[in-house]
Amino acid sequence: MVLEQEQEEEEEKEEAQRGFNLERDSLRLLNSMATPTVQQEAAAVAATPRKKMTKQLTGKRDDTTLHSAARAGNLALIKDTLSGAEEGQLHELLAKQNQAGETALYVAAEYGYVDLVKEMIRYYDLADAGIKARNGFDALHIAAKQGDLDVLKILMEAHPELSMTVDPSNTTALHTASTQGHTEIVKFLLEAGSSLATIARSNGKTALHSAARNGHLAVVKALLEKEPGVVTRTDKKGQTALHMAVKGQNLEVVEELIKGDPSSVNMIDNKGNTALHIATRKGRAQVN
Predict the structure, then answer these.
(1) N or C: which end of the chain has fewer CB within 10 A?
(2) Using CA atoms, how far apart are residues 225 and 230, in angstroms rounded to an integer?
């Protein structure tokens, strides 16, 4: 047990060192391209603590027979239930939400049951297919979050308009897929409509902001290829995707964003901070 603990501590130290090296390299790159004034201001930036967020989980209760069949992946029961239901009863059954706000279609999509989703979507109109669970996601959105391209394609083929649905914070499925780093999902949704990349959340952040923050290089490249102008878009704090990137640990993302528009290096947010200032604070280092 002592040996295992020592190994874990050593791995944590190595991970921390890798993170430090990447932060240091980001600082050097940004510093080399910033104006002298920005360099001087960045040298005075102090470190500030960051908050950690926790996610509240909800239970899945009050399932109907259709919910249970979807959760179990029981295609035969799904077919029998849907084909045997009367028209008025069918609509009620399809739109019925459990305690978590999930429809049976949402459950099938969440579990990645391709055949079930293909069968069920035949009965769903756009309104019912877009019903959101309590987490703000509809069936397409949860498929995007989990990187399930097969399920997402089936849903999009039936109702292409689902790509434009948003959660309560105005987050699109593209934005969520970008945050998670699901490159193939991102590329597929961009083919459906490149304008999706310009839609910002209620806090002003675009998909590029979130992809940059999480260090997803392939996603950043895909977004910039379809919508290059989004590189200088700012959120409600006045921060660009480059401001986000330097908070992460992927130097290649920083380089890609600078290549997209070198002038972004000297763009300031609402507090007068450039990306270099943010990098300095994150790295807890002085810039020479």
Answers:
(1) N
(2) 10
CATH number 3.40.50.2000 is the correct assignment for the domain at 62-165: no
214: Cβ contacts below 8 Å, ≥ 6 apart: 179, 180, 181, 248
Percent of the chain with pLDDT over 70: 77
Cα 213 to Cα 117: distance, rounded to the nearest angstrom? 33
104-117: per-residue pLDDT in tens? 999 999 999 999 99
Task: Write the CB contacts of 8 (distance below 8 Å, at least 6 apart in sequence).
Answer: none
Q: How far apart are CA 187 and CA 154, in angstroms?
A: 16
Residue with the bigger pLDDT between 57 and 41: it is 41
pTM: 0.77
**Are residues 275 and 266 in contact, defined by beta-carbon separation less than 8 angstroms?**
no
- The residue ranges of DSSP E strands in the chain, in sequence order, are none
Identify the helix (H) or strand (E) that includes residue 64.
Answer: none
Of the pLDDT bands very low, low, confident and very high (cuts 50, 70, 90), residue 279 is: confident
Instruction: Quote the tokens at residue 268.
Output: 């300031």
Q: Was domain 24-45+172-288 assigned CATH 1.25.40.20?
A: yes
Residues in CB range of 270: below 8 A, 6 or more apart:
237, 238
CB 138, CB 162: distance < 8 Å: yes
Q: Where in the chain is the domain with CATH 1.25.40.20?
A: 24-45+172-288, 62-165
**φ, ψ (nearest 5 deg) of residue 201:** -70, 175
Residue 147 has pLDDT above 90, yes or no: yes
How far apart, in whole angstroms, are the C-alpha atoms of residue 100 and residue 96? 11
The two tokens of residue 107 are: 């459950």
